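Lab notebook: predicted structure, single chain.

Context: the supervisor wants predicted structures on file for every construct in the current expression panel, including those that have not yet been purified. This is the next one on the list. No modifications to the sequence; it matches the entry in the shared construct table.
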Amino acid sequence: MPANPERRIGIVDDDDALRDALSWLFSTRNHSVSTFASAEALLNDYQPDDFGCLVLDVRMPGMGGQELFEKLKSYSYCPPVIFLTGHGDVPMAVAALKEGAADFIEKPFSDNDMVDLVERCLADDLTRRGEWQTRASVSQRLETLTPREREVMKLILTGRLNKQIADDLGISMKTVEVHRARILEKMAVKTAMELAALLREAGVEG
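Prediction complete. Output recorded below exactly as produced.
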């Protein structure tokens, strides 16, 4: 069975031997893997949907794992991040957990523990990525609405009827009907109820 590129694991560690060992370990479990010798190497061509999980060493020359994590969080989407730590780095890893990291694992580690943790993160990523993609899609559709269409949509979502919206905005009912039809078309829904449900599901305000 070929590796699934949608579940790619990124490993960022300055230890060549450890990168190779982790790459081999995950590859034997049918995961696509990309390795990087530094945080800067990852960021050089990084896209937020490139990876299903990132394994970052806490201490590296140049930019460390924590600083890299902060940069990754500034993107529109950040996949689950696991920190690799030495014993003395545990407090730093715990601090990273408070900032949203998925987990950390101490060196030396059990191969099975590492794989189990990464695969839990990959499963979590599928859910989170779906939610992110839904939000992004709905936001893009909202951006296609004109200011007047956004105004009409807000009134539609409050349950106002076409005649009431026409009175509220001082426009004709026919104009409201045209706006309503365009709103539903642009948002790819058929009814006001579907529109409300779409925005609610995406966690996006109209």
